[in-house]
Write a structure and sequence with these properties.
It is a single chain. This protein is of the alpha/beta class. The chain is built from eleven helices and twelve strands. The strands form two sheets. The protein has an eight-stranded mixed β-sheet, with helices on both faces. Strands 2-1-4-5 form a four-stranded antiparallel β-sheet, covered by helices on one side.
């Protein structure tokens, strides 16, 4: 039964591992996701942040139905994908679209732009002049000249290609748009254009968004809530305003401190992470962040902290979330 509180999309206890086939590490297991749960509400923009290699892209593909988890399930309007009928699953795949990270490799170089954007329309049964009209309208919507529809992807810049990817996703009339690092490969001058375009499209098409990015500045600008990932798990989750007002995890603290600032605030001290990101082939015992954490104690080396609600709507997986980060009233 669907209620007003039912999440539009949810991942429940998701786990995903990959068995390596390279000669140097053949047979090794790489843990990309480990017991990850999160929800996306109707009309919400959810951000997923973390360093490269933390499992963000794998999570996005699983939420989009492009990859199956080893354990756990994805739910669409309260129903597991595995229990959907073939017609309901096709509806989910149509209404959940993905924008991929690299605009240079996500478009077929042998297809004309008109055919790339039209592909979801043709699959849904639309044909003929309706398709041409829809393609022209979609190109205009994302800021592209419809007269360029017969050109190939290599004739466009990175920003234009990302606009083509957005137009292709919108052609399916989705409810959910999952954008994997949508601006990371673009020049800074183009990034703002794509961010503004996504926000415009959210309002125009009544979309719910999942934005995957390592750039917290982008997520702060775009998102209602943010989940912070580290080595395949969620370390912190909160409304964006609360996260930047008072984070409750040392890893989030370090990420926020690393955001470039125009002016120097002498009251702030740099938070330097110890060592590099551990390999997902050899995840540390206890809190997997403890080798890099300046607050680490013995309990952090032995006990895995649970992801708990520390404040209303604000979750943290840190043994010392209350004692280190929460300020008591004067």
């Amino acid at each position: 039964m669907i209620t007003p509180d039912t999440a539009l999309l949810a991942g429940v206890n998701l786990r995903k591992q990959f068995r390596l086939t390279s000669t140097t590490r053949k047979g090794g297991l790489l843990t990309a996701l480990d017991d990850v749960s999160l929800t996306l509400a109707i009309g919400e923009t959810l951000g997923i942040a973390g360093e490269s290699g933390c499992g963000k892209s794998t999570l996005g593909k699983i939420l989009a139905g492009l990859m199956k988890p080893d354990h756990g399930e994805v739910q669409y309007l309260g129903s597991p994908l595995s229990s959907l009928s073939s017609d309901a699953y096709r509806q989910f795949r149509r209404t959940t679209q993905m924008i991929f990270q690299d605009p240079f490799s996500s478009l077929n170089p042998r297809m004309r732009i008109a055919d790339i954007i039209a592909e979801p329309l043709v699959i849904s049964g639309e044909a003929g002049s309706n398709v041409r009209t829809s393609v022209a309208h979609l190109m205009e919507t994302v800021g592209l000249n419809p007269e360029l529809a017969q050109r190939f992807p290599d004739e466009f810049s990175g920003g234009q290609r990302q606009r083509i990817g957005i137009a292709r996703a919108l052609a399916a009339a989705p409810d959910i748009l999952i954008a994997d690092e949508p601006v990371s490969s673009l020049d800074i001058s183009i990034q703002a254009q794509i961010i503004n375009l996504l926000q415009e499209m959210k309002g125009s098409f009544n979309l719910s968004l999942v934005i995957i990015s390592h750039n917290l500045s982008v997520l702060r600008h775009m998102c209602d809530r943010i989940s912070i990932m580290y080595l395949g798990t969620i370390f912190e989750q909160a409304p964006a305003a609360d996260l930047f007002r008072q984070c409750l995890h040392p890893y989030t603290e370090a990420l926020i401190a690393a955001i470039p600032r125009v002016s120097v605030d002498t009251r702030q001290t740099a938070v330097i992470l110890n060592d590099d990101l551990p390999s997902p082939l050899s995840i540390p015992a206890g809190c997997r962040f403890h080798p890099r954490c300046r607050y680490a104690a013995e309990i952090c080396r032995t006990d895995v902290p649970a992801l708990l609600e520390i404040e209303p709507g604000h979750l943290s997986a840190c043994h010392f979330a209350r004692t280190i980060f929460l300020r008591t009233p004067d």
